[in-house]
Amino acid sequence: MGVSKRSYGDLLFDGEVKAVLQLVACPVLVIPAGWPGPEIGHVIFATDLAEADVRVIAELVRLSARLKARVSLSHVSRPVLIPDFAEELRTSSFTDRVMHLYPGIGCSNLRAANVMGALEQLSTEKHADLIELRYRKHPVWYRLFNENPLKEAMQHSQTPLLIFPENPGHHD
Fold first, then answer.
1. 5-164 is a CATH 3.40.50.12780 domain
2. So where are the chain's domains?
3. Cα Rg of the chain, angstroms
4. Measuring CA to CA, which of 17, 91, 151, 156 is 20 to 30 A from 29?
5. CA–CA separation, 67 vs 114, rounded Å?
């Protein structure tokens, strides 16, 4: 799916990509203009450590095996003044679990105010060809106070995005 201004949506209306994600049970590939593609040798999955991400990682591992691509997992969180030991424990527990299930996956934890900027920088440093995300529908009040993460990702990413819907199904 190519990206245009209508892809993003705005405060009141969902964009084309969100509309598709709410209807399908398969991942949606969003390609920025000028992508040299189509070789995909390394993918980065951006996680917020949600339990639903473990299912998406399983799907991603199957897909990446077909592409003969490496998989990296990245958790990007905003910087904090006071260390949150509960979050650090949750992060290490999640990454240990994923690495136990899928030993070939590399993991990184980054702290950055600009989450998409950090993911873009990581994808450049690691020579990633694809950034993968899991779409989650947010309530209306969330959109009043926060930037739409999907919109931010589509507007600022120079790397193609593979976006898994909120409730992905198994695909052959």
1. no
2. 5-164
3. 16
4. 91
5. 30
